[in-house]
Amino acid sequence: MYALVDCNNFYASCERVFNPSLQGKPVAVLSNNDGCVIAMSDEAKALQLPFGAPIFKWESFCKMHGIEILSSNYPLYGDMSARVMKILEQFSKDIEVYSIDEAFLDLKGFDQAALTKYALEMRTRILQWTGIPTCVGIGPTKALSKVANKIARKFPKQTQGVYVIDSEEKRVKALKWILLKDVWGIGRRLEKRLASKGCKTAFDFAQLDEHWLRKNFSITEWKLQKELAGIPKIEMELAQSTKKTIATTRSFEHTFSDLENIKERIATFAVSCSEKLRKQHSSCHMVLVFLSSNRHQKEEVQHQASTTVVFPYPTDSSLSISHAAVQAVESIFREGVEYKRAGVLVTGLVPTANHQLNFFECENPKHKSLMNAIDSLNGRYKTDVIKLGRQDLQRTWKMRQERLSPKFTTNFKDIIVVK
């Protein structure tokens, strides 16, 4: 059996732990630079504030309904997530951290009759030790544990936040209840294709002819069908997987029409990508750079462009990647355009210690020791004390976070004072 533990309204719940006045109130959390709504409490969802709503368009709506708007506080959310996952490790040694607020637990060999009690103990301990409410779904496969979790979340009074699919009768009833669009792994496009076959619920999907499904869809959908039938096909990913691409993209605090400011931003984004590459011991084959004007300002000249640079050898050097990124942005920059957004993406990632060598061209060997020294100093002082010459040494990149709560658990200055 597998358990899926999901933190309820995680971002809003983290804020409520340290600010009890938010309990029972509608809460919305914004994306980077206070752009749009990315998370909400149940109260805000009930008011039908849409996900992804640009806050500058919905500000008056939020004010009218008393919705508390907060900037995203990722240091706080990341630390609270680590605490929750640490507690879950006490309940199973095989845990897959699926996202910042979700984890699968392998409960193979556990007493099946006692799983509900065990899950309730899980919920209680997490709530007592962190203040984060959770729901637990348990089923014979990962997909069914997801379905069970949705039932636990939908009917909290009847289930006390825990639901176990442990019989054929419960499995069929659950699949007939859950709509296809709410099934794990069914995207909007897939939902439309399946709708033409008359599929409305997970049960309809599970009844499709296996050979037809295999012929018309990918192996992923076939595995999902098996999982919904109670046959495990999706294995636990116990080791932390490395990212296939790494990106740093931002909306500027205001628009830029001069190339020098944009080059400085691109160099900073490239350095950020390079640091993330070195952190996961990867090197990249390509760097992609994009620029975009403000699409909300229709009366202004609009321009979106991107370009890719391919390296002759994989690299993780900030010097090489930022140099290529700056050259790339020079080639797509257009005079007279007010740019609002830019980004750098590195891809074609390979392990730094194990990749194909190029006999004629290779990274300057001095870069490796230089990058090690920079990472060491920046890590020790927790800030960018060493920067590249292309970056503005006086400028500190800050997101617009006008509604940011304190970093209660990761900064000594922000620890709550009890009076």
From TrEMBL:
PROSITE patterns: UMUC. Residues 2-187 form the UmuC domain. The keyword Lyase does not apply. InterPro entries: DNA/RNA_pol_sf, DNA_pol_Y-fam_little_finger, DNA_polymerase-Y, DUF4113, Rev_trsase/Diguanyl_cyclase, UmuC. It comes from the Bacteria. CDD domains: PolY_Pol_V_umuC. One of its GO terms (biological process) is error-prone translesion synthesis. One of its GO terms (molecular function) is damaged DNA binding. Keywords: DNA damage, SOS mutagenesis, SOS response. PANTHER family: DNA POLYMERASE KAPPA, DNA REPAIR POLYMERASE UMUC / TRANSFERASE FAMILY MEMBER. Belongs to the DNA polymerase type-Y family. This is SOS mutagenesis and repair protein UmuC.
